[in-house]
Amino acid sequence: MYSTVSYIKIDDGSILQASHEVVMEVPLAVFVNGRHALTAMISPSRLEEFVTGFLYTEKIISKPEDIESLRIEEQGEGEENKSTSGLSANVLTKNPFSIMLSGKTVLSGCGGDTSYLDADRLPKIQSDLVIEPFAVKNIMKDTLASELHTRTGGIHIVGLFGPEGRLCIMEDIGRHNALDKAIGYGLKHGVDFSRTFVASSGRLSSEMVRKCLIANIPIIASRGATTTLAIRLGEQSGLTILGFVRGQKMNIYTGAERIRSK
Q1: Is 245 helix (H, G, I), strand (E, B) or coil?
Q2: This prediction's pTM
Q3: Architecture of domain 26-115
Q4: Which of 108-122, 200-214, 228-242 is least confident?
Q5: Domain ranges of the chain
Q6: What is the DSSP string of 139-167?
Q7: Are 259 and 240 in contact (CB under 8 A)?
Q8: Rounded to the nearest 10 degrees, what angle do helices 206-215 and 47-57 cross at?
Q9: Residue 227 to residues 176, 203, 234, Cα–Cα distance (Å)
């Protein structure tokens, strides 16, 4: 997940040779039934969860059992290429005609091509989940306690939580990737998403909201900001969106009925 790199440090006029940990970024090419479906710039961990979650949120599969096989392989030659070589994921689905638009690219900055967004066709949240503000605060604190972020300062974190607490914490250079990893984990472990809560270190965009709607995750919160389109989609779909969750403060943008005040 990270490599130690050397650099020249300038500090108050002094020039020093130093080193520190830098988060890894590699291309992952995903092939579905023999066709190139996606290239994601990604942190090389929990890749099966990422592919499963991504195919689900893109509606290529409707359940993990739709995947006949999933194989992750390294692309690159020689020991010296291991930190920079690409990866490939080869997926066979039970429906051989399952495929998305070919050649989609997801960049590490979360600024790549996004799925076509038709608000009227997105599902509505079906959940009676209600939580208290102190639980939101504790969940965010748990999510952000990342050793990798402390080491590198260059990672996004997404936590998936249920009524009994933490289900998983996923880390990636892209927040969309991290959310797909969390959704993939939930799919592989039979999680009832209608009883879950997602916490994120990064901005809540319309794409983050869309993924929650596809999975029927009723609440998403971030320590950062959200966007106007994300809020509009949340209002239309019944998703609860919380932003700037820091300490005792938070902003409730949509779905306030799910946050129980004393």
Answers
A1: strand
A2: 0.89
A3: Roll (3.10)
A4: 108-122
A5: 26-115, 133-258
A6: HHHHHH--HHHHHHS--EEEEEEETTEEE
A7: yes
A8: 90
A9: 15, 8, 11
Each as own residue / partner, the long-range contacts of residues 135-139 (CB below 8 Å, 24 or more positions apart, any chain) are 136/197, 136/221, 136/242, 136/245, 136/250, 136/259, 137/245, 137/247, 137/248, 137/250, 139/197, 139/199, 139/221
pLDDT digits (tens, 9 = 90+) for 10-54: 988 899 999 989 989 999 999 999 999 889 999 999 999 999 999
User: What's the sign of the alpha-carbon dihedral 149, 152, 153, 156?
Assistant: negative
**CATH pick for 133-258 out of 3.40.50.1580, 3.40.50.970, 3.40.140.10, 3.40.50.12500:** 3.40.140.10
Q: How far is 229 from 204, CA to CA, in rounded Å?
A: 10
Q: Which residues on adjacent β-strands are paired with residue 183?
A: none
Q: Which amino acid would we find at residue 224?
A: G
